[in-house]
Amino acid sequence: MTGTIINIIAVLIGGSIGALAGNRLPAKVQETVLNGLGLLTLAIGVSMSLGSSNILIPMFSVLMGGIVGELLRIDDGLNWLGQQAEARWGHRLGQGKVEGWSVTQAFVTSSLIFCVGPMTILGSIQDGLLGDYQLLAVKSTLDGFAAIAFAASLGPGVLLSAVTVGVIQGGIAGLSMFLGAGIGEVSRQTPWVIELTATGGVLILGIGLSLLNLKKIRVANLLPAIVFAPLIVVILELIGV
Fold it and tell me: Fewer CB near the last or first residue (10 Å), C or N of the chain?
């Protein structure tokens, strides 16, 4: 769990620096920074999604994931958690720096960005299976700098995403420790990782559109897609397709 702890600390430090710096930045600068982050998020999403070896897998994963996510109302659940945190600590955290962004929205958006991607999955598995937290240490550095930028624009609600990072990455690492060798060797070239990455890229595209205020997408309700993607790959391999 060492890598997860490092990642949590990085998000907290980066978010704190960004929140403090944001108070000193003019509103137009904060908005421009947010737009830049939105464009960069779109670029990352496109890069990840184009890595699929069979675009039908991400497509069906997103379709099925969206249905399950809407039925489970994941987005509503995350928003509820954010609202509870805002009600309890909002007077300490303050409001979002960019007009229209609340503590809850900052929490949900940053949580999705920090937890959707191949480094989260691979790093947590390696940390749990082998005690190798090198990949998560690299991710922690990236997340720390990202947290500075997001907190400067969206406000200190970004700090709450450290809880999400702990639950998601800690959960994957713990599950990996429990399952042990049954997971087998995993790398970026493992077929199910490739499709999981591509599917995650589609979700990140949705986050980018939301950051740019082009389209508000309930990305959280698409999260089951990253479970369906590797599952579809495994099923196809079992039936010899």
Answer: C
Q: Is the dihedral of CA 52, 53, 59, 64 positive or negative?
A: negative
- Which tokens go with 206? 């949705």
Q: Residue 190 corresponds to which tokens in the numbers above?
A: 């493992």
Backbone torsions φ then ψ of 185, nearest 5 degrees: -75, 135
Q: Which two tokens stand for residue 10?
A: 């990085």
> How far apart, in whole angstroms, are the C-alpha atoms of residue 83 and residue 97?
17
Find the Cα–Cα–Cα–Cα dihedral 105, 108, 113, 115, rounded to 10°.
170
- Looking at residue 71, its amino acid is L
- For the cut 90, the answer to whether the pLDDT of residue 8 exceeds it is yes
Q: pTM score > 0.85 for this model?
A: no
9, 169 contact by CB (below 8 A): no
Return the structure tokens found at 84. 């509870």
The amino acid occupying position 120 is: T
Both structure tokens of 5: 């702890």
Task: State the sign of the Cα–Cα–Cα–Cα dihedral 16, 19, 20, 22.
Answer: positive
Q: Which of 86, 121, 101, 139 is nearest to 198 (CA)?
A: 121
Helix, strand, coil shares of the chain as percentages rounded to 5?
Answer: 80, 0, 20
